[in-house]
């Protein structure tokens, strides 16, 4: 019963049981990003390059776990930036005012991305149709929104030129698929270089630091496009797998309940005799006193030894004649030695299962106990018929 109860609980289990795992994934991703930053900038840095790894950790946490893990990753990443990277290193105090502004923008973008991931994950429609030209409509909207915000906030654009670009890529990939996500990545890289990196209004990249920043952004943008495109597919696969698992579990539980019900209402002992193995396997009945005299498993020869000597030859003969004669059904009675040394009157109704070549494979039947008088009358009729 404990196993059955556990199976029922697993069928109706909701997502709240996975919160701890989601938060653990978020913390682990931020820890990995922190290690990457410490390797890249062992003495710290006030530039925005270290935010690339932290932003990827936030995005993956929100995409995997939803709003709460995304917000946790945002808070942890902000602390990681202030403590491990920004000057003075290994202190929560940030000396450079401009670095504080970039940190605040990073925090706001992390919250925004967590909200966007939560909206996509909780949307009732599992898979967005991704055919036709309308799948590209999100590109001008999302890319334009990310660019306009930075044009309206030049201070933010100067400190974090790649801010809000990640959200735009995710929106394009989630709504349109992989190709719109890739196009949005390269379009945003070009617009960011042209409008927000020095020298302005130019596509040339003279600074080595800017080349690295653009390369990191494009690499992470392509990764986000792949993740965003796969999210709906994975969500659909997970939903189908969940439906199949629930149906399987429900069927298993129903079969278990049906079997228990049949055993509860049946007054007879059900058995199966494998002709190739010589073993008899029984399903006892709770109402049948005969079940206490019949083990769940025993050899056919052991069963024969417990039959009354006067009934043994006749019982074996009837079984052999039915099996060799091609019959499919027979009934017979006999007396069986009980656990207290007395004989019980038993009636068997057997069915012979045969293969395609009519070769006998096994015998399935039921055994029931009945008064001795009836057994003697039945044996007498059987002798007259034979």
Please characterize this protein's 3D structure.
The chain has helices spanning 2-11, 19-40, 51-65, 67-85, 97-121, 138-152, 154-159, 165-176, 178-196, 208-265, 300-305, 309-324, 372-385, and strands spanning 269-274, 279-283, 297-299, 329-337, 343-354, 360-369. It is of the alpha+beta class and 386 residues long. The chain folds into two domains: 2-244, no CATH class; 269-385, Beta-Lactamase. Strands 3-2-1-6-5-4 form a six-stranded antiparallel sheet. A hairpin with a 5-residue loop joins strand 4 and strand 5. The protein is rod-shaped and about 110 Å long. The model is unreliable at 1-17, 124-130 and 373-386 (pLDDT under 50).
Helix content: 55-70%
* Strand arrangement in the largest pleated sheet: 3-2-1-6-5-4
**Number of extended strands:** 6
Element string (H = helix, E = strand): HHHHHHHHHHEEEHHEEEH
How far the N terminus sits from the C terminus, by CA atoms, comes to 49 Å
Residue-averaged pLDDT: 77
Proportion of β residues?
Answer: 5-15%
Question: What is the total number of structural domains?
Answer: 2
Low-confidence stretches: 1-17, 124-130, 373-386
């Amino acid at each position: 019963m404990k196993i059955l109860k556990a199976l029922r609980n697993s069928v109706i289990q909701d997502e709240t049981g996975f919160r701890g795992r989601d938060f653990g994934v978020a913390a682990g991703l931020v820890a990995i990003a922190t290690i990457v930053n410490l390797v890249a900038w062992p003495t710290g840095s006030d530039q925005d390059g270290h935010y690339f790894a932290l932003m990827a950790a936030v995005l993956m946490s929100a995409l995997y776990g939803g709003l709460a893990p995304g917000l946790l990753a945002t808070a942890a990443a902000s602390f990681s930036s202030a403590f491990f990277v920004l000057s003075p290193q290994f202190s929560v105090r940030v000396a450079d005012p401009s670095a504080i502004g970039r940190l605040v923008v990073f925090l706001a973008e992390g919250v925004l991305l967590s909200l966007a991931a939560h909206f996509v994950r909780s949307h009732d429609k599992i898979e967005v149709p991704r055919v036709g030209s309308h799948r590209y409509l999100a590109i001008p909207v999302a890319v334009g929104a990310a660019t306009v915000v930075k044009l309206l906030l030049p201070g933010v654009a100067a400190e974090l030129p790649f801010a809000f670009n990640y959200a735009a890529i995710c929106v394009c990939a989630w709504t349109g698929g992989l190709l719109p996500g890739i196009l949005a990545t390269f379009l945003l890289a070009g617009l960011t270089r042209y409008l927000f990196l020095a020298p302005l209004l130019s596509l040339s990249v003279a600074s080595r630091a800017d080349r690295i920043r653009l390369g990191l952004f494009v690499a992470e943008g392509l990764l986000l496009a792949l993740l965003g495109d796969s999210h709906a597919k994975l969500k659909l696969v997970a939903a189908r797998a969940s439906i199949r698992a629930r149906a399987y579990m429900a069927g298993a539980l129903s079969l278990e309940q049906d079997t228990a019900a049949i055993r509860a209402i049946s007054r007879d002992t059900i058995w199966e005799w494998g002709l190739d193995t010589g073993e008899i396997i029984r399903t006892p009945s709770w109402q049948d006193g005969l079940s206490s005299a019949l083990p769940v498993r025993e050899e056919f020869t052991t069963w024969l030894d417990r039959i009354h000597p006067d009934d043994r030859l006749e019982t074996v003969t009837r079984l052999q004649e039915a099996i060799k004669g091609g019959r499919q059904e027979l009934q017979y009675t006999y007396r069986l030695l009980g656990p207290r040394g007395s004989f019980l009157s038993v009636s068997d109704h057997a069915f012979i299962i045969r293969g395609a070549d009519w070769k006998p494979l096994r015998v399935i039947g039921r055994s029931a106990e009945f008064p001795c008088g009836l057994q003697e009358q039945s044996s007498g009729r059987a002798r007259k018929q034979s």
